[in-house]
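so my prof wants the structure for this chain in the tokens format not the other one, which i didnt know existed until like an hour ago. anyway here's the sequence
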Amino acid sequence: MTRESTLRFGAQTDEVTSLLRIVNLVRTGEATTRPEIGRLTGLGRGVVTQRVDQAIEMGFLADGEYAPSSGGRAPRTLRFRSEQGRIIVAAFGALHIRVGIASLDGDIVDDRHVGWDIARGPAETIDRALAMLDEILADHEDVPVWGVAVGIPGPVDFDSGRPVAPPIMPGWNGFDMRRRFEERFDAPVWVDNDVNLLAFSERSRRPDERLDLIFFKVGTGIGAGLLSQGRIHRGANGAAGDVGHVRVRDSETPCRCGKVGCLEAEAGGWALVRDAERAVEEGATGALANHVAEGTPITPQLIAVAAMNGDALGISLIQRSARLVGESIAALVNMFNPAVIVVGGAVSSAGEVFLAEVRQRVYELSLPLATRDLSIVRSLGDEKEPLRGGAEMVREQLFETTFPRWFAEGRPLVRDVMPVAS
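here's what i got, hopefully its the right format
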């Protein structure tokens, strides 16, 4: 009775702490056998056996194959039962919805994508995302949902899961993003900025646990995800990394946020489309002008492709955006001193046309010490990155942040995991 009570209330006893650590050692692959667990934890053989048996009984671990023998009896491996639950991810962009399901080890099992204007509002947008998820789930066996990640293109109060004055999302300010997903999936829901999900995705593929990284997205809008010592830095109110609305020197261009002179209003994808259309109206020629003449809408992706193909207007637009972005990144480099900057988004898909200009401005304007070991690279551009990042974010919340609160139940429940939204 004492043990059951201790486990149920997640009390931080030595027994509970060691049990949680053993599950996570196996889950992350740091230990795959009982002798390895003993070496890493310092626990005696009998205690390790007892804790592992508890974890197997609770459904977290299972016996695997036999490991190679090192001279004696071959040890039996252990595995984390990642198939016992799944993670749902809904990643909303300015002009698209991407949804998917992942196993508890973070692998994307299935996904869907559709073009969509986020300005259509929360009710219609979430209805569409849930319908897409229902389509996916109908094709897979019924497995309990352990957690849901939602990404949006705007600032988020992470504790409450509510957007905070998102510039391009009319009607979303203060909307309770968690409720609809909690009701549908009966699982805890975490809402984060879309660029933070991309930073999580980058972290998942890099072995450095104490990584200092900036993911700088230049798409329709502009934002940054900040990893400090391997942890996402969201700031006091979720506004960290909202660099798209820092002031550009001498600019008086109106921004969608209602202010003037914002970086996004000069260098974001929607600003480039605006400038391209204006240039064509004023007589510019070339590939972009030909697209307009043919009735093809200009998009940030189209401008990036035109620049890569040598179109003069496309190159000038991309390079100006890159110069302004490089100046903002340089300020972040001096303040944050990251080891890696990953540049992503539709505008950055122009490749070296964009990245070379960014690098030049960063190295020109940053302190030598801050750039001594700095790496500036493009993202892989994989469209599933927001889904992988969302799954990684949920895994962190489940197994590193809230695990003691719910593990005695065998699976996470909303009442045990989520703070009450104010």
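also thought this was worth mentioning. Residues 304 and 349 are 6 Å apart (CA to CA).
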